[in-house]
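dude i think i finally got it to work??
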Amino acid sequence: MKKAIRMLAFDLGASNGRSILGSLKNDILTMEEMTRFPNIPVKIHKHLYWDVLYLFNQIIKGIITACKKEDCSIESMAVDTWGVDFGLLDKDGDLLGNPFHYRDPHTNGIMEKLFTLVPAADLYQKTGIQFLQFNTIFQLYTMQLAHNPLLEKAAHLLLMPDLINYFLTGVIKTEITNAGTTQLLDVHHLKWSEDLIKKIGLSMSIFSDIILSGTKLGTIRKDLKDSGGIGSLPVIATAGHDTQSAISAVPAEGDDFIYISSGTWSCMGVELASPLPFPESREKGFTNEQSTCNKIAFLKNIMGLWLVQECKREWDLQGQYCDYKELMEIAARAEPFFAFVDPDHGSFLSPGNMPEKIRGYCRKTGQKTPDSKSRIIRCILESLAFKYRFTADQLENLLKKSIPVIHIVGGGIHNTVLCQFTANATQKMTIAGPAEATAAGNLIIQATSLGAVRSIRHGRLVIRNSFGTKQYEPQNNMLWKAAYERYREIIVEKNR
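look at this
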C-alpha cells in the first residue's frame, strides 16, 4: 500500500479564501479545510482595491496551522486566485500599492479608446480573449492614460497568484493560465505580445518569464521558515487561474462534455486542442484561455451567482436577513417564468442595490416587475439557466456537433434549484460535483508535478474515485422550451 502524499492548496476566490490539506493515497484524494477567511475589497475614495497584505498574512496562518497538525509532513503547497488583477513591484522588489479590484469603475469606457489603437478584430485574433473591460490590458491602458505614477516606478508586473508566490519564494515568474487572462498573451505562440505591450506604452521588461502549470518554484523564504517554524516547504505553481484549476477537476470520463465552473462567475465552455480566435467566436463573446496540458479552455464568462450574492447583501443591509438555503427554497416555490434578465448586462457588474437593478432592468424591457425576494431570485436563476442554454447552443453551432452532457463544478452545485433549472433549460443530462473543484484541481496539479498522478486524465479518475456527484435529468421539457423562446425574444432578439 502506497504512502499518503500530503499537499496544501490555497484557493482565493472573489469573496473568501481557504486553505485545504489534501491527502492522496491509492488514487483517492481526501481534503480537509484548515482555515477559511473573508476576502473583502477595500474602498478608498473612489477606487476599489484588494487587501493583498491581509491575504498573504492569512496564507501564512494557514501554512502554520497545517504544519502544526499532528504527524503532518507536507510535500508541497500551491496558490490559485482569480484572473486579470495584478500588483506592481519596484526595482528593489517592493510592492507599489494595493492592486485594483476588477470591479473598480476606473476602466469604464476604456475598451473603445483602446480599439482606436488596436482594432477589436486584430486584438481578438492575436489573443483570443473575450472583451471584458477589466482585462489586464484595459486596466494597464487606463493607468497609462491617467499617468499613474506607479507605472513609471514599476520594474515587475505580477498577476495575483504569481505575486503571492513571489512573497513566498522571492521567485518572479508568470504561470501560463493567469497570463492567458491578460489579453496580452499571443495565443498562437504562447508568449507575451511585444507589439500589444508597446502599443499601450509599456516596456516588455516588466513582464516576467512564462512558466507552465506544475512548475516547481522552490521552497519558501528563509525568514518565513524561521518566523513560523514551517520548515522547507516546496512551492509549486499550480494552474494559478482558479477557473483552470477547477476545470482540471471536472470528473468527466471522455472529452465530449461542457463544463460550468459555477460560483460568483459561471465559466462555461469546452476543452480544445487549439484556439478558435476567429470573428464568429469574438462576435459570440467566447474566450480562448490557456488551460493545463497545452489545452485551450474555450469558454464564456457569465455573471453567475454574483447577482444572488448581491441581492442577499442588500437585503441583509436592510435588516431582512435570510440565508442562501432559504432563498433557494422560496425561489423553487415562486411563480415560474415571471420575468427574465440578461445576467451579463453592464448594470449588474458593480456592487450596489442589486434587487432594484433587477427591477429596473425588467421595467426597461417592458416586463412585469418582480416584487418579492422569491420572484427576484427565481428570475435570476431561470435567467442564468437560459443563458447556459443559449451558450450551449452557440458552442454546438461553432463546433458543429452535439454535446450530450454538462458537468457543473464549484460552490454553485449547492444551489440545487439552479442545477435542476440548468438540466431543464438545456435539455441535457447535468452532473454536479465536486463542490471544492478548484482546490481539488490545485491539488491534482501538485500531485502531477510530484509524480503521484500521471496526467490530468488520470487526475480526473482520482476525482471520480474520491467525490460524489449528483445527476439531474431534464424535466418539463415543453414548458421550458416555450419559456426559452420568450427569453430569447425579450433578452436576445431585442438586443441585436
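Residues 250-265+303-433+454-496 form a domain with the Nucleotidyltransferase; domain 5 fold (CATH 3.30.420.40).
im so relieved honestly
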